[in-house]
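**Backbone shape codes:**
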Amino acid sequence: MKHLNTDIAVIGAGTAGMSAYRTVKASGLACLLIEGGPYGTTCARVGCMPSKLLIAAAEAAHHARHTAEFGVHVQGEVQVNGREVMSRVRRERDRFVGFVLEAVQGFDPADRLQGSARFLSNTELQVGNHTRVTASRIIIATGSSPVIPPMYQGLGDRLVVNDDVFNWEKLPESVLVVGPGVIGMELGQALSRLGVRVQLLGRSPSVGGIADPRVLESALAAFHDELDLAPCAEVHSVEKQTHGVRVCFTPEGGARREATYEYVLMAVGRSPNFDALELANTSAHFNDQNKPVFDTDTLQVKNTPIFLAGDVNGQMPLLHEAADDGRFAALNAVHYPQVEAFKRRAPVSVVFTDPQLMWVGRRFNQLDPAETVVGEVSFANQGRARVILKNKGLLRVYADRCSGQFLGAEMAGPAAEHLAHLLAWSHQQKLTIRQMLAMPFYHPVIEEGLRTALRDADGQVCCDPADPSVGG
């Protein structure tokens, strides 16, 4: 048995783990980076990058089918070659993963340790059956895994998660997508536009994480135009068959249905990867879900020199948040036992469907109606949106009723990925609605819709903030 001593051990070499390792090394302390699986971040290997490649192919097919409204006519039926689509997805995915592998290979080989880690105590780890590591502080950055409800666990190779989709060599004939969250909506719509027969099922009214009921209504109206989507459905049974899965379900307000799908794509959520770590061997405290109790501001596991970074802490499963977590956890590990709370960036989330979805800052269900004004704009008749035939959806912005400070926004509509950034920057700078309106708005652009919503909110602010007057 090999024995290694280090100042800080990082378990997991994804986005958070790599960020933590770099931060520790920059401080001058010794660090071991332990990885039990293949190198390559969730984003590059099975997440945001390959999904956007699939979405890009789907958008190309969709645009090719909908040129006639512009007076541009494509002769014949649009042909989607599933093998060619998936070949590009895998090829470009591997290219992105290659960049991550190059970064890891640039780390000192003496700092890299392969094998699954488990805790023996607060400061001791067993890695595989070959190495025992002693570290005065430990950072857990083991990520998360898809949740599989019991009803679906007997489906064998007919049950897939997003990790599996990007290894397909060709597109299937049909897929049942369970869970209309971010992953389910993105992949479900993309597969449908590529010619796959898709059914999306959920258990709650929401799709893509939207909380504002008016924004949700506009999103559902747009999605129902092209997708077989049942966000509130009761699944009665699932049965594996020779060439697929037979599913019996009842949509809300509809009749009982039965259908067979080649695959079931499970997208109901992800669970932190704790089970194999044997944290019971530490002095960690656990909640009623058997997860370690930790401080969300410092990322320290209560009563231990252990820190949680990235998706494993279940806070914001986004790449930039994971990178921040890695840095925050590492800085606190470096200075342990002196730890401090870190200021986070403005919350922001984007769903790359069509229409795109986004939210920034406070969600609708986090607002006090008595202290909040809401401005909105529909994109049905917004100039630029109509020009490009993306005139669907709604944007709602929230502001403090008295000060006019911008609090947050939710949206379904065109260019939401770009508006989300403008609004996140405004939120982080604590701007008022009037200060935002004093910024330039070009013509004709989607951002003019944002100006309309801001003006709507500004007209409802009860006090006149001491901000610059709004130009025309």
